[in-house]
Design a protein that fits this description.
This protein has 324 residues and is mostly beta strands. The protein has one domain (1-19, 41-248). Helix content is 8%, strand content 25%. It contains five helices and 18 strands. It has helices at 21-24, 110-114, 116-120, 141-147, 215-220, and strands spanning 3-5, 50-57, 63-71, 98-101, 104-107, 159-161, 177-183, 188-193, 201-203, 208-209, 223-225, 232-235, 239-242, 265-269, 274-276, 294-297, 301-305, 318-320. The strands form five sheets. It has an eight-stranded mixed sheet, with no helix packed on it. Strand 14 and strand 15 form a beta hairpin. The protein is globular, with a radius of gyration of 19 Å. The chain starts with a strand and ends with a strand.
Length: 324
């Protein structure tokens, strides 16, 4: 089974986010006392996962010690993935996945598919058969690999794109193995670091938190790269991975709030700072987040809060050094 280093590969082959984020934003310089060590006991890894300590070099050129975290790429808190694409124009939300646009996460129902021409103001959109009502879906590995990439093969224009994890691992409950290097204790930056096209981090359930999906390329080919309720999908590069956080909705397991009502943590960014859910138990967002979507409190030190599930990102930038 292949091991993909998500420190080097982009999960979806591209991003619409600027590669110069560090030149466009200011971040709060984190005090050393706010850099809490990574707690690897939070990870729920299968027997194929592993966590070790290794020597590493950080993005500032300094030598450090990192955790090498290998995950099998299948969420430990679920037994199945999907649903993704609706099968017909009458498929309802309970049997369909999601799509996002302009910060909003939509139910990818059959009705949504039939209205894509109006939604995008372009009559070229038609992902379904007028006579049968069946939705055009990539239903083979060949079709998946021709469509789930930025340069979509022309024959798969006007398709709903979905890939099965079984194409890349036929062991039930396993996905595509990936290894992440994360500093044992975060090292703050003086200037924000770009997310770029790399992975953002890894969830405690063993799934990659990916950078922005290349929506411009997807839409330019008249395709929809369907997500499930967790804003995750499968592609040939990264296996199953997330592009947003939608915990507690539909089939996506909820994240417990912390004892003080603060949004719960669900993963670590590659710089070693924890990523928490967007809202607290009162359904409110923190009002003092910096441009990377982070802030500091006494209980947790510096940490991030995820963006909304339809925003095609988790955090805005890295406030800590990452491993190279």
């Amino acid at each position: 089974m292949p091991v993909l280093s998500l420190l080097m590969l982009s999960g979806c082959g591209g991003s619409n986010s600027s590669s110069e984020i560090e030149d466009a934003v200011e971040v709060v310089v984190v005090d050393d006392t706010s850099n809490y060590p990574v707690d690897v006991t939070k990870f729920d890894l299968s027997s194929s996962g592993a966590i070790t300590q290794v020597a590493c070099t950080l993005s500032n050129g300094e030598s450090s010690t990192c955790y090498s975290i290998t995950v099998n790429g299948f969420p430990s808190d679920r037994t199945t993935l999907g649903p993704f694409c609706p099968t017909t124009t009458t498929t309802e939300a309970v049997n369909a996945g999601k799509w996002f646009d302009d910060g909003v996460l939509y139910d990818l129902t059959g009705e949504f598919i039939t209205n894509l021409d109006s939604f995008y103001g372009d009559s070229t959109w038609q992902l379904y058969n007028d006579e049968t009502g069946e939705v055009n879906i990539t239903n083979s590995q060949i079709a998946c690999e021709a469509a789930a990439r930025p340069d979509v093969a022309a024959e798969y224009n006007n398709f709903c794109v979905q890939c099965e994890i079984s194409y890349y691992n036929d062991v039930e409950g396993e996905g595509v193995s990936s290894t992440f290097l994360i500093p044992i204790t975060p090292v703050p930056r003086s200037q924000a670091g770009s997310i770029g096209r790399d992975s953002v981090g890894v969830a405690f359930n063993g799934v990659a938190l990916d950078a922005a999906a290349p929506t411009e390329a997807i839409l330019s080919a008249y395709t929809i790269a369907a997500f499930d309720d967790c804003v995750g999908h499968v592609n040939p590069f990264a296996g199953y991975h997330y592009h947003g956080a939608n915990h507690g909705e539909g089939t996506c397991p909820a994240i417990e709030f912390e004892v003080d009502g603060h949004g719960g943590a669900f993963g670590y960014a590659l710089d070693g700072y924890a990523i928490h859910s967007m809202l607290d138990e009162n359904n409110k967002e923190e009002d003092d987040l910096d441009s990377c979507r982070g802030h500091t409190d006494d209980a947790r030190g510096y940490h991030y809060h995820s963006a909304g599930p339809g925003e095609n990102l988790f955090i805005g930038c890295f406030n800590g050094e990452t491993a190279q």
